[in-house]
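Hi support team,

I'm opening this ticket because the web form for multi-chain structure prediction keeps timing out on my end. I have pasted the exact lines I submitted so you can reproduce it. The total is 1171 residues across three entries, so I didn't expect it to be a heavy job. Is there a limit I'm missing, or should I split the entries? Thanks in advance, R.K.
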Amino acid sequence: MLETEGVTKSFGGVHALRGVDFSLAQGEIHALVGENGAGKSTLIKVLTGVYRPDEGTIRFDGREVSFHRPADAQRAGISTIYQEVNLVPLLSVARNIFLGREPRTRLGLVDVAAMNRRAAELVGSLGIDIDVTADLGTLGLGIQQMVALARAVSVDSRVVIMDEPTSSLEAKEVATLFDVARTLAARGVGLVFVSHRLDELWQLCDRVTVLRDGRRVHSGSMAELDRLGLIAHMLGREVAEVAREGATEFGDTHRRDQEPVLTAHGLQVRNRLHGVDLAVRPGEVLGLGGLLGSGRSETVKAVYGALPVRSGSVHVGGRPVRPNSVPHALRAGVALLSEDRKAEGIIADLSVRDNIALAVLPRFSRGGLVAEKRIDALVETFVRRLRIKAASPQQKVRELSGGNQQKVLIARWLCTEPKVFLLDEPTRGIDVGAKAEVQALIDELAEQGLAVVLISSEMDELVEGADRVVVLRDGAVSGELSEDRKTSAALLAALAGAAAEEEGGDE
Amino acid sequence: MSERLAMRTPAETPPKRRTRPRRIDADWIRRNGVYVALVLLLAINVVFTDNFVSEGTLRLQLIQVVPVLIVAIGMALVIGTEGIDLSVGAVMAIAAALIPLYIGYGTLVAVLVAVLAGAISGLLAGTLVGRVGVQPIIATLGIMVAGRGLANLFGGEIKSIRDPGIVELGSGSVLGIPYVVLIAAAVAAGAWFLVRRSTYGRRLVAIGGNKRAAELAGLPVRRVLVTTYVLCGLLAALAGVLLAARSQASDPTKLGLLMELSAITAVVLGGTPLSGGQVRIAGTVAGALLLQLITATLIFHDIPDSTAQIAQAVIVVAAVYVQLGRKKARR
Amino acid sequence: MTTALESPRPRGRSGASGRARLARLAQRQGALVILALVVLVATFTFDSFGTAGNLENIALQASFLAVVALGMTFVIMSGGIDLSVGSVFALGGVLAAWGAGHGTWVALLLPLGVCGLIGLVQGLVIARGGLPPFIVTLAGLLFARGLLLLISDEGATTYKVPPGSAFRELAQGSFLGIGYPVWIVAVAFAAGGLVLHRTSYGSTVLAIGGQEDAADLMGLAVLRTKVIAYTASGMLAGFGGLLMASYTSSGVTILGVGTELEVIAAVVLGGTLLTGGAGTVLGSLVGVLLLQVIRNVINQIGSLDSNWQAVISGTILLVVVTLQRWLATVQRE
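Hello R.K., no limit was hit. The queue was backed up. Here is the completed structure from your submission:
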């Protein structure tokens, strides 16, 4: 139904897509897979009219089409659901669904009553129970994602492209989303599905196309490809090699015989955390598991002083850390690699060098003036040690790949010589190669005696990477997996147990 | 001076592998267009304007550019934090209005009081923006409206200033260079040094680039913001004092009127993006000089005010368009 | 009247706590509360304040600014800003006064056409060229002022509306004892409220102001919507000037300096978020009235320097936005 043939697109001499053929049949759910930078998002943007291909053709319903703007693609019946919800938070659910196509009264004015009624019917038919007059922004992210899907349904889309729609959803919300997706496929809608959570692909998709370096390297039935085979295609490595090395780069467990360097007691954050206790020893990697909204990120942010705590205490090396003060936590030897790299991490227009040196400026200045030479030396050390691929330390961080941006941030925190390193989803959204490097680095740091708290949505990462896993639910510790009980099955059971008891919380 | 400073912009120092060899593209124009335009316009004037190359003319141009230049430097700092300060014109008027009131206590006291008033106004703006979280444009708009009213209340009608110290400050010179020009040069050099070499400067651009990330990196965001607005207020007040000293009068209703617009224009012409995260002091100096030279050129050639303003409008839009060209290309 | 223009919003289970809802109300209607208080106090303090004549005078004086504020409201809600309105206001007045010498229709259509054109060009440059509204309309301010000087011999000529011209009637006439400008403002704001809440154009404006990328990806006509907003703002600013010219029977060239800031202040006082995406047109009217009432009260206190008006307006603006910030935090909790 929707096909591309030999689509090529380049940006300033860099090829993002090279002669890609892709075809989507009616009523099928098609997985689009690749590392970051493989060309997935470029292909999606070509399909939805954000970019125009340099070469090649797009055919829709057998006819050659050329979309100049997203609106053109949409009018033709191609909708897109993005990772970040692309709706208007200050408008109501109903307005969001019908924006631009509101039902009118005879006078040509918007028929608000009819609009609300039809919106309620629509979301009801998708199995979502919400007040359609509520402002979208007051609802949970999962619900917002469904509203986006409802909008796609309401415009009678023939093709829906879902670009990482699940990355911020809870398991239960993912299940609902998949149900809705299957309903749509049964109605004959073609769906393109992109996700970094590989497990989801087998749950949902019929066929798969793998991209690497802007080329299509595989296309075929989803069921005929196993996990190892998929990763091999993505990486361009041999299947046996992947099997030997394991899916992650984590090594063995670490020594953990000393007194805890970080202890947190009874951390409370309004509406978020209700008394969380943590203790991490030097050289230990503590995994922090839990579903979205369980309070994982809030816990590390509270420890770091970036989230106002109501009560509770944090001690580092036996000494209390003043709550609600990032500078104080930093000085005590705590560092936080935030989950949201773009919004809370990098300063895109500053150089690699300035980004790395950002948190240590006071230590590297005298009389308010920056000690440039010492910073140069420091930056050079870290660029080499973390193998940051940048043209020069002066290159803007914006121009680096996601994985290298993440390494720059890790370097920023390592400069501060932390005793405790809090890592919130350190490998999310970075390509497989960089992922492996980051995982190996975490191991290395722990071996050198750093206490690491690792948050990850990937079970493999927690099970293989952490020495111990603390599972959170509803802002409190709900269980702990010690080293001997630490298996995927046990973790799944702990998470699932938590999920089963959770009733309709949509944080 | 500006040319020399321009040579040392950071983008040119490192040997980059991925950047293309130096050629004239949109990025180059954005960074250096203001200098080119300045040189071109100077050349045009040298050829076509009678008596342009005379000590008197050049000297007058330099003296006239001083207030805009000083205000624009403060503005550039604020814009670097992704802010804006609309109150600078009103602050100039307040500072100038205070001079006649306090001149009885001596020149120094009067000047200090005036400059202090600017700092206080900046402190208010900085507190509203940095601590309360009010949008810069609104916070400084309120101060602008209230400040102009206050200036009128303090100053009343036009007052002339006869104090010999103030007169000397406005009209005196050393080695043939007017004091006011020296002060402006010192301000520019100081600001350049601050942006380029101090921790404060680094923090300022980091905060302008990504405030949340700067917060999480432990930067004292609020303090830097407050400091920046205080500096801007201080500089605006200084400009007000110098302007009053030169004209030997204080006119609270007119002094500094629309100065915020000229200063913003100079900053933008100089290549500092309104989206923050970058401060280009040398560019701002050149921008102010260019603006002054444009006005002067039009006056030299008896082009009426109306045409001058229309021309200025077109220049501003063109300058911003050039500045934006690069960002678009990147997408 | 406040709720009449609001879209009905049943809040069955939106989940907002009572306190948050109160905070939200205060944020939106804070200016109304202050206006009511000031009017109340002034009525009891000054005998001359509450008289029909004075109140009508306030309404009339406020109407010129209100027209401009209506256009600004839509621009700000779309996430933009229009700094050119002061100059365009003055230009509209001069064009109207000049045009009145050539017939009433010229006096009406010329300013609307020229000012609308200025708005159109600004809108195109902003929407199509992607330039920041702040800078473009700043240039527009200079441009319009330059144009004004050009047609008025560098400001030396003040055009007069001929004594017998019907054009004078527009702002000097009255219906039911209330001046035409007040009626015009009432109709214009009612229409503005309908456009905002009951047309897809209104939703699109709010969508663009709230999340421009999203609006674009949803296939909304972002470009056209913005261009219309700026064109309307230019036209309305010109119309305000035209009314003023009719009222004063002349095209005063020095008008409108700083008007853009007064108008922005009024819109923000009225609860429209400067970041766009939310607001009401009625709020802007309240904002304009508040500023006008303050001016009037200061005039009532004969001994008070008129400069206090600026000081108080500015202070109120700062207090209100500080309160709004505070209320926003309360709401979030």
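A quick check on our side: The two ends of chain C are 30 Å apart (CA to CA). Let us know if the file doesn't open in your viewer.
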